[in-house]
Amino acid sequence: MYIVMVTPECAPVAKVGGLGDVIQGLSNELQIRGNSVEIILPKYDCMRYDHIWGLQKTYSDLWVPYHDQHVHCDVYFGFVHGLKCFFIEPHSSQNFFNRGIFYGHQDDPERFAFFCRAALEFMLKTNKHPDIIHCHDWQTGLLPVLLFDVYKHLGMTHPRVCYTLHNVMHQCVTGDFVLRQVGLNPASYHTRDRLQDEHNHGAINLMKGGIVYSNFVTTVSPRYSEEIKHSDLGCGLQHTLWMHSMKFGGVLNGIDYSAWNPEMDRLIACRYTIESLDDKYKNKEALRNRLLLRHEFKPIVAVVSRLDRQKGVELMRHAIFYCLANGCQFVLLGSSPDPKINHEFWELKRQLNDNPDCHLEISYNEELAHLIYAGADMILIPSAFEPCGLTQMIAMKYGTVPVVRNTGGLADTVFDADYAPKPYHERNGYVFNDFDHQGLESALRRAIGLWYLYPHYFRELTVNGMRYDFSWNHPARHYLNVYNYIKE
Length: 488
Known about the structure:
The protein has 488 residues and is an alpha/beta fold. It has 2 domains: 268 residues, Glycogen Phosphorylase B (Rossmann fold), CATH 3.40.50.2000; 191 residues, Rossmann fold, CATH 3.40.50. The chain has 16 helices and 17 strands. A 9-stranded mixed sheet has the order 3-4-5-2-1-6-7-10-11, sandwiched between helices. Strand 13, helix 10 and strand 14 form a beta-alpha-beta unit. Helix 9 packs parallel to helix 14 and helix 14 packs across helix 15. The radius of gyration is 23 Å and the shape is elongated. The two termini are 13 Å apart.
């Protein structure tokens, strides 16, 4: 099958969050299974060009309609860790993708609307007729609209569109001038069954456009697909998702075991397997040495996370003091896009700086993240909501027991040691329901108690988690089923 991914991110060249990892992991697995996969990205000036091999201009006569003119673009081709990638570089006074950052500008709706039109124009002019165009998040929401209402009539009748929602909190509600920009008549789309936003009837919603016009819609875990369809986690898209529920489902993300695997990880102090699990504790010693924690008989509870409200920063703060008061050491690695939250955690760091059982690292450090996963006993993920979450999957591979809130992908992957309706050998962590201090403490109390009082059972829980397979093998199979379904 011939598949084209149209996306704003692909790890490691253009990565802001989990979306970039998904593109890389899923594309790799689809390619391994014998499919032809190409990825189309903007050519950002801030990409990691050191991860692109053989980058060269491959098409220099792309003229993309923009308002009442055409913008000249060059298209570059290169390999990103074996993946075929095309990068679109517009030459315009708007300077769409030379901003030093991937997102975060006021004209983001216009930038990515242009990218949608440019990607389709490139496929048309180079005679690409993929079986599947797989679009991702609001940045590519206009592509299915343009394909159905413009490019189908220009000869692109073959491709079917799969559209994946990675986080519906970010939908891009904007003015209908964006439609005029890409050659669409706003009057045709300003209705509830098309692009009109549910809350702001004078605005259009780009993510809604992707849902309405694509052939199939997925999100990144089965539980999250139900949550956004039936609760306020849908952020206004509930009615649209319900109306299109026959073409909507959740596919759990995978993780890349070539990057996250204690059996081959070069960034940890000592590699280990289930059979050599005692070697995990050499990483615990190395983590203590690195972070200047004292060497005592205590569990290490860790947080590796972006620090924002979605991730439960208030519960993280409470957990630090609860764990320290209950015989644990605590390690946090993360930073926030919100200066206020960053400031709060810097204050916490100063307050706890002399505590030999606590270290807060207010930054992101990939190498340190690997050592924390390998050296910690438990990892805490107290999210308000979580579309999928990769942290708990990575932690389990490293034999680190997850303590999570019962939401989204966390609920699909972590099964409570005491209460899950599963046989004991399938239980792999601790889960709490209520998003408050009492809920958090209920799970931490049980996890810490098991570590101290029943170490044999804690070790079994560790091994249960390590046995789970969260590779891209299963998600890729699900996506191929979706692709085949919409091709027929």
